[in-house]
Write a structure and sequence with these properties.
This protein has about 850 residues and is α/β, with parallel strands linked by helices. It has 6 domains: about 100 residues, DNA repair protein MutS, domain I (MutS, DNA mismatch repair protein, domain I); about 130 residues, Nucleotidyltransferase, domain 5; about 140 residues, Orthogonal Bundle (MutS, DNA mismatch repair protein, Chain A, domain 3); about 210 residues, Rossmann fold (3-Layer(aba) Sandwich); about 40 residues; about 45 residues. It contains 31 helices and 27 strands. Helix 24 links the parallel strand 23 and strand 24.
Length: about 850
């Protein structure tokens, strides 16, 4: 317990898994936590007089339990025995061999194959914030700096599993970014410029950071230094695979604020069971491709050349079924090259994974050949850059058995014929049966005992067993070891020597296999760079094959991208909704045309449920997919490059932060109006509905006017309930009215979901209420109120009308000229409810019922 307490003092923030014999044990507070998270038994033990809580599990179950602890947000310190218990007479030396945290993990059971596991650091500088992201499992290391809004957006995009920050900025961070992140607080001295530069230059073996193009990012460098410091703190020092620090070049990507990312449900949704765009478009086969696609979706391109390059490969692959199938088939044969090479660099790779690495690189060969022979120049260049690492594959083939085990200690790792010494030792250890058979025959001949038997056990090792009937023939040189009921057991000098030889051989085999395997790993380190480069290219190819597959399955078409500022979509569909429709129902496609000269703002009116929001969202998604380099769900699309997409869609209370729906709505709107550019696409849905009608109309009108008069002339789709806004088109020449058409039947309404020119007259809200199953009397009352309201317009009249309608509805029951009803009315009015018991109330109700029944009988 002294040893445990000393180690726990060094790692107070971590849950300590302490190796004791064949178990990992947790004590005290850690045991209480572990038993809850893992569902294991919590017991007590008296250690040195104090009663201590205890919970443990077998050491071989570590891969089952460790992921559960890390996913619960725990930092886990794994404390192993550092020496062989057989070699020491005192307490075995122990120490922390690895610190696994939500953001620093290499264990496959903790990692999500198609998502990065980023560790982030945020540094609060004087005028700017710095941020850095590192995925130790793939070697990606990225940095940037900017204002609060930019850093918030990057945190949303990269969605780190753990965020590091200075203890001094704890409050500031929570106020700016919320408290839903897994955070870890470091001492303030770690966030110093000179310390960060020294750490980074030391790691990359450079004199300055100029070569990475980040030397001007002072705050970004400090955040990156903090990340590197944390890796050494968590016992991760073999980091050869982290070979460069890249700047996140935000100016190259489409700007989407966090509201837009959330509103468009790109890769996560606040609604349960909602399908995201990523789920629909992800046709990648490899984990590497899956991770890259997520990045492409978060950061769509703004460079038309790069977009066209991606589109050209998709266009080339689409009709070539055989080539597409071949590439995808071989990508399927591969492991996660990025993560395998990271395990190699950190020394955490096992023999089975090394063989898997070799087989994965062999699957690159046919892909390289197929892409190099293609007529697509872009695909050709990609194929030439693929490195199959032939010397590495040959070396692994020579050295390791194809069926190498996960654990090197299991033996049978190094292939036969690679090491003479190893082969000799194996012959000695595994040909013992022949040798013992010969010895047995010889001894039987010499002693004349026909029923001799050679066996071994853990206590005596090898022995010769003689039945009691023959024990008088045993030679004097044999030494008796054990007496049984029917037999005696002996050992001989020759047997003892042979046993020592065999045991020595087995031990030496294990040592030699380990030694040779470690030599192989050192030799393989040279190939980390080339394998990472190949993995990146394969991820790109996987994404582009996925785009071709997506287009083929869903009838997507190639968009045109140009430098104009107009958007022309013909027959556009919503990528997600069209996949969720009931069988046999097809999506109603719509055309959208926007430019900065004569149709800058489209005002869309129409009833609830008619599909206004879908038209807004699908326009943004088609632009997004185009700028990712994918085909799009439309008959045709010509997209002038968009640099920012803003959305204000749907109401979302942020009560936990003390903000109402309307406050959230206005925050999002302010963010849009303050960041407009000439190439922005703005989508506004139901602006102003979080407040009173006249307030709402005024705000919506003012926003539309601001967008129209702003020099940027940002292209805007504006969906609204307020039909009053249709009048704007008379004053503002670039605002055009459209509506989502409906067909009115006798008491019902049919949604046609088609966008047509012209404004809509009313919103059919009461029809929707009826369709939703709202009680009949509510629908009827709503209709009466509506008819009265439609006759009045001013606010005072509206209030009076509502009161009048209310009174009329309340009193109508007693307006009938009926003495019995008058009697009942008097009866009810004179009841003293405060003194009435439940039984009396029921009796009174029964009395009224009897009067009414009597009247009903009389009238019939």
């Amino acid at each position: 317990m002294q040893q445990y307490n000393a180690i726990k003092t060094k790692h107070p923030d971590a849950l300590l898994l302490f190796r004791v014999g064949d178990f990992y044990e947790t004590f005290g507070e850690d045991a209480i936590k572990a038993s809850k998270i893992l569902g294991i038994v919590l017991t007590h033990r008296n250690n040195g007089g104090d009663q201590t809580e205890l919970a443990g599990f077998p050491h071989h179950s570590l891969n089952t339990y460790l992921p559960k602890l890390v996913r619960a947000g725990e930092r886990v310190a794994i404390c192993d025995q550092l020496e062989d218990p057989k070699q020491t007479k005192t307490i075995v030396k122990r120490g922390v061999t690895e610190l696994v945290t939500p953001g620093v993990a290499l264990n496959d059971d903790i990692l999500n194959a198609k998502s990065n596991n980023f560790l982030a650091a945020v540094h609060f500088g004087r005028n700017k914030l710095g941020v850095s992201f590192l995925d130790i499992s793939t070697g990606e290391f990225l940095t940037s700096e900017g204002n609060l809004e930019q850093i918030d957006k990057l945190l949303q995009n990269f969605s780190p599993n753990e965020v590091l920050l200075s203890k001094d900025h704890r409050q500031e961070f929570f106020e700016s970014f919320g408290n839903h992140w897994h955070t870890f607080f470091l001492e303030d001295w770690i966030f110093q410029a000179d310390y960060a530069e020294e750490s980074l230059n030391g790691h990359f073996k450079t004199k300055s950071l100029q070569g990475f193009g980040i030397d001007h990012l002072a705050q970004g460098i400090i955040a990156s230094g903090a990340v590197l410091h944390y890796l050494s703190e968590t016992q991760h020092r073999q980091l050869q695979h982290i070979s460069k620090l890249q700047r996140i070049t935000e100016e190259e990507y489409v700007w989407m604020d966090r509201f837009t990312i959330r509103n468009l449900e790109l890769y996560q949704s606040t609604h349960e069971n909602a399908v995201t765009l990523l789920e629909i478009i992800d046709k990648t086969i490899s984990p590497m491709g899956g991770r890259l696609l997520k990045r492409w979706l978060a950061l769509p391109l703004k460079n038309p050349e790069k977009i066209r390059e991606r589109l050209s490969i998709v266009t080339y692959l689409l009709p070539k079924d055989a080539l597409l199938e071949k590439i995808q088939h071989h990508i399927k044969q591969m492991g996660d090259l990025e993560r395998l090479v990271s395990k190699l660099a950190t020394g955490k790779i096992n023999p089975k994974e090394v063989v898997h690495l070799k087989n994965s690189l062999e699957a690159v060969l046919p892909i390289k050949m197929a892409t190099e022979q293609s007529e697509s120049a872009t695909l050709n260049v990609l194929g030439q850059q693929l490195n199959t690492c032939e010397p590495l594959r040959t070396k692994i083939k020579q050295m390791l058995y194809e069926e190498a085990p996960v654990n090197i200690l299991k033996g049978q790792t190094i292939a036969k014929g690679y090491s003479e010494e190893l082969d000799e030792l194996r012959n000695l250890a595994f040909s013992s049966k022949d040798y013992l058979d010969q010895m047995l025959e010889r001894e039987m001949g010499q002693t004349g005992i026909s029923s001799l038997k050679i066996s071994s056990n853990n206590v005596f090792g090898y022995y010769i067993e003689v039945r009691n009937t023959h024990k008088n023939k045993v030679p004097e040189s044999w030494v008796r070891k054990q007496t049984l009921v029917n037999a005696e057991r002996y050992i001989t000098e020759e047997l003892k020597e042979y046993e020592a030889k065999i045991l020595g051989a087995e031990e030496r085999i294990a040592q030699l296999e380990q030694q040779l395997f470690e030599q192989l790993l050192v030799w393989l380190q040279e190939y980390i760079g080339p394998i990472q480069q190949t993995a990146r290219l394969l991820a790109k190819l996987d994404c582009l094959c996925g785009f071709a597959q997506l287009a083929k399955e869903n009838g997507y078409t190639a968009p045109e991208i140009d430098d104009s500022t107009q958007i022309r979509i013909k027959g556009g569909r919503h990528a997600v909704i069209e996949k969720q429709l009931p069988l046999g129902e097809s999506y109603i496609a719509n055309d959208v045309f926007l430019n900065r000269d004569d149709q800058q703002i489209i005002m869309i009116t129409g009833p609830n449920m008619s599909g206004k929001s879908a038209i807004l969202r699908q326009t943004a998604l088609i632009v997004l997919l185009t700028q990712m380099g994918s085909f799009v769900p439309a008959e045709s699309a010509a997209i002038g490059l968009v640099d920012k997409i803003f959305t204000r869609v749907g109401a979302s209370d942020n009560i936990s932060m003390g903000e109402s729906t309307f406050m959230v709505e206005m925050n999002e709107t302010a963010s849009i109006l303050n960041n407009l550019s000439e190439r922005s696409l703005v989508l506004l849905d139901e602006i102003g509905r979080g407040t009173s009608t006249y307030d709402g109309i005024s705000i919506a009108w003012a926003i539309a006017e601001y967008l129209h008069e702003h020099p940027a002339r940002a292209k805007t789709l504006f969906a609204t309930h307020y039909h009053e806004l249709n009048e704007m088109t008379e004053t503002f020449d670039r605002i055009k009215n459209y509506n989502v058409s409906v067909k009115e039947l006798k008491d019902n309404v049919l949604f046609l979901r088609k966008l047509v020119p012209g404004g809509s007259e009313h919103s059919f809200g009461i029809h929707v209420a009826k369709m939703a199953g709202v009680p009949q009397q509510v629908v009827q009352k709503a209709n009466k109120i509506l008819k009265k309201l439609e006759k009045s317009h001013s606010s005072e009249e509206m209030t009076d009308t509502l009161q009048a309608v209310n009174q009329e509805m309340q009193l109508s029951f007693f307006n009938l000229d009926d003495p019995l009803l008058e009697e009942i009315k008097e009866e009810i009015l004179h009841l003293d409810i405060d003194t009435l018991t439940p039984v009396e109330a029921l009796m009174k109700l029964n009395e009224i019922k009897r009067l009414l029944t009597k009247k009903k009988r009389a009238s019939s």
